[in-house]
Amino acid sequence: MEIKSKFLKNLSELPKQDYNDILKKDDSPFITFDFLDALEKSNSVGSFSGWESNHLGIFNKNKLSGFMPLYLKNNSHGEFIFDHQWSYALQRAGRNYYPKLLTAIPFTPCETRKCITEGLSNSDLINAGKDLMTEKNIETWHVLFPDTELQSDLKNNNFIERSGYRFVWNNKDYKDFEDFLNIFTSKQRKNIRAERKKISKLDITFDIKDKSNLSQEDWDIFYKFYVNTYAERMQAPYLNQEFFKLVHKSREVLNPVIFFAVRNDEIIAGSLCFEGSDTLFGRHWGASENIDSLHFECCFYQGIEYCIKNNIKFFDPGVQGEHKIRRGFEPRESSSFHFILQKDFREAIQKFCIEETKSVKRYLVACQEYTPIKKIYRI
Description:
It is globular and about 65 Å long. The termini are far apart. The mean pLDDT is 95. By secondary structure, it is α+β, with helices and mostly antiparallel strands. The protein is built from twelve helices and 15 strands. The relative contact order is 0.15. The strands form two sheets. It has an eleven-stranded mixed β-sheet with strand order 2-5-6-8-15-9-14-13-12-11-10.
């Protein structure tokens, strides 16, 4: 085997077909060439935003055999794993936390494969990444939301595990939404029905658009809602309109689903999801006005009904948010992994993560006390 590794400044340096040849049919939409390329071509990611592409490709006789998304980060924006305390600590010691090395899908806190290989082990990619750290004197490398197989390999390669959590809905072969409601206490069944009734009383209906019937006009409407969500937080949106245009062009591969809320023939809100092989991923939402319970209906209940109807096993609406527990989403541990180059900082991060893990485990126990799901139906 003639193995060579190469760091790529743009995904477009790779032939798309070579990349697709080493993907699996059940890989999530977010690790596809089309999704990562749309982020770069739209300029949603780039050195100007602190996301400098430095993807790792491994080649066997000039044929792509392994790929890992890799970024040199000059900030910690858009990661959903917060390490500001770590950066402050290292800077106080007179050392540079940035640039750091990051393996993640930008702005997408979803668990998915992060090492795409054919005839190679994950460790081949991991070792190449470590060599880059040494060469450029990069203090830290962070791998966010990896799949289970990669988690094991990262541990074996001395990455520190950092505990987190997310809330995921599990389809337990429900016949319909009413069947799903049977898992709750009677009080919570009443609460959810009341939330949904608030929306129906306002004559708000829902129009579901997927790859079979989405139009560019639909994306233009949704983008206004998306931008409005960030404007309410006084923030600039991470993604630009060109990104969503490129998603539309690749809709057959990326499987986007938009749930539009409609009142008096006017679209007033929308929630964007992506459908994977067994999971519906909730990603972005927005509305033109603030209506009580509309967020719950548009972002949660419509997605749950869609999963039931289409026999989708999981609905992952994104990280954090205790309000999801009351609506049928169950807590699940979620981990990130961190390689620290220097011994002194590595020991400090190890201690931090040990203590944080204890806190997370206490929180997950508390979630079990808070959930309105009957015990016989819990995971």
